[in-house]
Amino acid sequence: MNPDLDDARRRYEHALAPEDRERHPFYAELCDRLGDDELGLTLLGEVRATQRNPMLILAALHWHALRGHEILGPLYERVRRGEPADVKVDVATVLTVLHNNPALVRGELWRSTQTNEPGRSAVLQALVSELAQDRRAINVIEVGSSAGINLHFERFRVRAFDDHDALTLVCRDLGGVIERTLPSIARRIGIDPNPLDLANRDDRLWLKACLWPEDRRRHERFDAVVAAWPTWEPVEVLCGSVRERFDEALTLTKDSFTIVINTWVLFYLSEEERAWFLTRAHDAARAGRCAAISVESPLVEIAGIDATKRPEQRGASRIVVAREFDAPELWGWCHPHGRWLEKVRS
């Protein structure tokens, strides 16, 4: 394998949005150093194309810290607690550990970044409430469902401020769509080639490793979700690729209105699989079989959507919706973790 180190360097450079770099100095410095480090570049270049994301390298290091690595464990614990420290010294220590034992990360490159970020449920609530209109009950299909946390999007409170409840999502609504009425969910179906189980300790640990250590609120929320999960309705999981299972999921939900959702998953599909799914989902929406919500990187091309339009905030996710009996349209923009939401004015 001859990894493309220039491509890897660009990926580290753009791994964090500007506002996230300000809030996460440890991860910002770590991305910068890995992007200037030959081993860091090589490791990312070795990752299979559909998972070539710096977050996989960061999660692998965090994974070993959570499992009690003698150096990384205490260091990451200090970072999670927000204790004062010299970020450059801490990052230099992480790089030293990595260089002394590259197998720490190389041995985890088979994994996938399956963050399953609940913060995106704030965005989903706004979109579902609009697309479902006055329906009392709907079905939801999530492509790339991981552990299925966002299939329970209605379980979270959404506020514009922090009320210090771990299950509250703080989302600045810049587009005047904060008021919402949500339908009940009849069926929740997830599609994932490697679904995770919150009842499994290793799966929980990997999901936690995919969280950024400096964001204490996200860790508190994840712990609260794990505690509440046994009381939530079960999710139907179809294990396999979207191409293998999507038509089956549509058939299972054909008797009532269904909304198909995907959040930051298309980037991990091959171009062929991505095009197949988008065509299938949007054709189904045009035929009135469902509506579709796509929250993805603007680098993901979607037929019929003007790729030149950009939000004022760098690093934003693009929201595209396909209403029933209609073609896909640009709905708006949001923070990748749902910290803010803005609807495009028509």
3D architecture notes:
There is one protein chain. With 346 residues, this protein is an alpha/beta fold. It has 2 domains: 5-106, no CATH class; 120-343, Rossmann fold, CATH 3.40.50. The protein contains 13 helices and 11 strands. It has a 9-stranded mixed beta sheet with strand order 4-11-10-9-8-7-1-5-6, with helices on both faces. Strands 2-3 form a two-stranded parallel sheet. Strand 9 (317-322) and strand 10 (328-334) form a beta hairpin. Helix 1 packs across helix 4 (38-46) and helix 12 (242-252) runs parallel beside helix 13. The longest helix is centred in the C-terminal third of the chain and has 16 residues, at 271-286. The protein starts with a helix and ends with a strand.
List the topology elements.
Elements: H1 5-13, H2 18-23, H3 25-35, H4 38-46, H5 54-66, H6 72-81, H7 87-100, H8 103-106, H9 120-132, E1 137-143, E2 157-159, E3 168-170, E4 172-173, E5 184-192, H10 201-209, H11 216-228, E6 236-239, H12 242-252, E7 258-263, H13 271-286, E8 291-296, E9 317-322, E10 328-334, E11 340-343
Parallel strand pairs: 1-5, 1-7, 2-3, 4-11, 5-6, 7-8
Antiparallel strand pairs: 8-9, 9-10, 10-11
